[in-house]
Design the sequence.
């Protein structure tokens, strides 16, 4: 380099050396020139220069390609002094192009220098490649060189700040979107720490904590890093230093900072919350401002989770008692299903007669009772898990086998309950399922417990019934039978057969009983003792019973058309009598088929009568007013027959086959005699069923029994056989008349 070229750096009067204190921060400056003297002179001219408390740190490149390599590996370069002409006439401009396009470095500031005015780039190139300044080397005094450098640094700082602001805002927008949609508090807290760490350019290690409603201790809501596993713990037991900072934060309602951490207060509508974050450096003002914006969204997210929890409580908690509901139980019980483990037992209890309490004493008393049951269960079994209201009057809970004794549990339930002003003794049915029988889904576990409960209800077992594997097989069989019954009934495969009823005096045909038959695919018949109770359980019996009544009416009209006007007896089930307006239904059916009421008899069992005595009496009176005859079927098998008999509008008592089958040798006939005598005194006819021998018939006739039916006279038969039976009887009667 000539002396003239080197002198331009020292023409200004401000070239006097200044002694400056040592600094720890630097602005990184890259000098790119193929002349080593330019490097030395530039450093000398800029020695001791500070800007915003930071000195200069120089990097050297002697060609365009070397400059690119340095810039690839160092993103802290803030300013480049770049010679235009080096290995080629446009080497400097090629460096600019590669920096902006290839390296995508838009923030570094570039000052072009050239030794010849003719090599100055056009203004278009300056604009296109974002060149900060360009000078000929002869223009640059030390003062102008410093001025250009400081201007470039200012520009670099502004570009970096704008870039940071843009990145920070994008981060906040992205972070806010991700946290505002979260409903799991642990996941939310982890995301909060993650994004706050990104904004502050610090570690992503910390925790979120809160003073919950009605509680004074600070509880960890969630965190990340080594804090992630402390969900629900008291903060004081997790980290004493974090506890002190958070407590100070809550007391002052301000953010706090230490050498290694930062604690932010979060302003929420419903709770005090704070974020504790490991932070190895002091955040900048810009970072704190962006953190403040993010915290506003954190507050909204926490409130949303609180709202979600309330909504979840509404969906998963029983409003009346405050305990879990069926949905919650089903979801949570799955965790207890463990193969080959039998530590727990699932207890399911059902209140017997709860509807009667609601109807008789009012729903408010019923609610009091439900709440009191929960209180007693909590008091008796404080360590029970998943105490839940699974149905309107059904409760369940999980408890360790070692902590549960069925006999003691019955003692707990046998003590009367206080419901409002009432003291109520309550009966329960208990179904139990051991953990070894828990199923893979909560719903299936609940199903097997219900199988045991239903078995307890069916057997009227107060002590409780444990689930056994064969119960499920039986239940599957029951469901299969019910499903097939529905199918066959819908396709009119059921049949009505008829068993003749005779007068004991002269064995004349007085009527017949309509009996339901269900043929199977193999030609055999499924017993009514099997499928009728199942039809009642499945809610089919009302429709089937009505169908049988209609079949009987149609059969009666066909017999009447043949000159045989006899009474057909039809059995009525408990559910049918419970249907509102049953008497009206019968009346409409008789009118539909134009059947005289006296030609239809309805047979009701004592279980029907005793189920709801007052309702049954009123219904029977309505039927009696229509002219329909009423018989008590299986009379004598009940437990309180005499107490209600005089109140019922009856026509006939049926002596159950149980009191006939052993007559006369193995049974004194005392019960049969009592029924006959009682019927006579009440003005009722008596009919004995199940008569199979002449001795039984003679014995009953001698007792004064009026009518009879049984295999001795005729088995139940389909319509065509009934017609043949009547035809043969008529022939015999005609023959007798002709003979006489």
Sequence:
């Amino acid at each position: 380099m000539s002396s003239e070229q080197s002198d331009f750096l020292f023409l200004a009067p401000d070239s006097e050396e200044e002694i400056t204190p040592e600094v720890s921060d630097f602005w990184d400056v890259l000098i790119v020139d193929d002349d080593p003297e330019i490097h030395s002179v530039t450093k000398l001219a800029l020695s001791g220069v500070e800007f915003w408390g930071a000195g200069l740190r120089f990097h050297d490149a002697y060609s365009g390609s070397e400059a690119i390599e340095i810039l690839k590996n160092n993103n802290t370069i803030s300013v480049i002094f770049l010679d235009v002409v080096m290995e080629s006439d446009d080497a400097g401009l090629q460096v600019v192009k590669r920096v902006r396009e290839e390296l995508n470095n838009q923030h570094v500031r570039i000052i072009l220098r050239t030794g010849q005015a003719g090599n100055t780039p056009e203004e278009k190139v300056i604009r296109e490649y974002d060149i900060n300044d360009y000078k000929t080397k002869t223009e640059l005094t030390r003062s102008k060189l410093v001025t250009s450098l400081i201007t470039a640094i200012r520009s670099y700082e502004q570009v970096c700040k704008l870039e940071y602001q843009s990145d920070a805002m994008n981060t906040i927008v992205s972070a806010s979107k991700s946290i505002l949609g979260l409903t799991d508090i642990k996941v939310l807290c982890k995301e909060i720490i993650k994004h706050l760490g990104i904004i502050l350019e610090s570690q992503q290690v910390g925790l979120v904590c809160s003073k919950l409603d009605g509680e004074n201790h600070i509880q960890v809501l969630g965190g990340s890093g080594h804090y992630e596993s402390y969900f629900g713990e008291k903060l004081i037991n997790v980290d004493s230093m974090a506890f002190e900072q958070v407590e100070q934060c809550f007391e002052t309602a301000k953010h706090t900072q230490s050498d290694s951490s930062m604690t932010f207060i979060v302003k929420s509508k419903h709770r005090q919350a704070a974020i504790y974050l490991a932070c190895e450096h002091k955040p900048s003002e810009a970072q704190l401002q962006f953190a403040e914006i993010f915290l506003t969204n954190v507050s909204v997210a926490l409130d949303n989770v609180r709202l979600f929890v309330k909504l979840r409580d509404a969906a998963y908690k029983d409003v009346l008692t405050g305990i879990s509901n069926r949905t919650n139980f089903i979801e949570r019980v799955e965790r207890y299903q463990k193969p080959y483990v039998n530590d727990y037992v699932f207890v399911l209890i059902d209140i017997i007669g709860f509807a009667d309490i609601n109807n008789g004493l009012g729903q408010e008393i019923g609610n009091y009772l439900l709440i009191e049951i929960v209180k007693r269960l909590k008091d008796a079994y404080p360590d029970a898990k998943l105490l839940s209201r699974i149905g309107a009057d059904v409760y369940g809970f999980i408890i360790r086998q070692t902590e549960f004794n069925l006999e003691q549990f019955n003692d707990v339930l046998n003590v009367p309950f206080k419901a409002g002003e009432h003291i109520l003794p309550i009966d329960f049915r208990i179904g139990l399922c051991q953990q070894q029988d828990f199923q893979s889904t909560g719903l299936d576990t609940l199903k097997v417990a219900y199988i045991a409960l239903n078995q307890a209800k069916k057997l009227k077992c107060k002590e409780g019934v444990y689930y056994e594997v064969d119960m499920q097989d039986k239940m599957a069989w029951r469901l299969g039978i019910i499903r097939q019954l529905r199918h066959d009934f819908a396709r009119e495969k059921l049949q009505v057969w008829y068993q003749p009823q005779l007068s004991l005096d002269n064995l004349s045909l007085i009527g017949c009983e309509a009996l339901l038959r269900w043929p199977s695919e193999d030609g055999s018949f499924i017993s009514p003792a099997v499928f009728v109770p199942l039809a009642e359980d499945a809610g089919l019996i009302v429709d089937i019973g009505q169908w049988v009544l209609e079949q009987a009416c149609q059969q009666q009209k066909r017999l009447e058309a043949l000159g045989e006007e006899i009474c057909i007896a039809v059995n009525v089930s408990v559910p049918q009598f419970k249907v509102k307006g049953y008497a009206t239904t019968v009346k409409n059916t008789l009118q539909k088929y134009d059947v005289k009421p006296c030609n239809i008899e309805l047979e009701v069992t004592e279980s029907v009568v005793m189920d709801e005595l007052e309702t049954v009496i009123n219904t029977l009176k309505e039927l009696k007013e229509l002219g329909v005859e009423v018989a008590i079927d299986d009379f004598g098998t009940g437990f309180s027959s005499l107490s209600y008999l005089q109140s019922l509008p009856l026509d006939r008592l049926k002596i159950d086959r149980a009191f006939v089958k052993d007559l006369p040798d193995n049974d004194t006939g005392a019960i049969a005699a009592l029924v006959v005598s009682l019927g006579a005194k009440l003005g009722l006819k008596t009919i004995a069923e199940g008569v199979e021998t002449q001795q039984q018939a003679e014995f009953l006739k001698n007792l004064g029994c009026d009518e009879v039916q049984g295999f001795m006279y005729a088995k139940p038969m389909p319509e065509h056989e009934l017609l043949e039976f009547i035809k043969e009887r008529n022939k015999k009667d005609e023959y007798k008349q002709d003979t006489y």
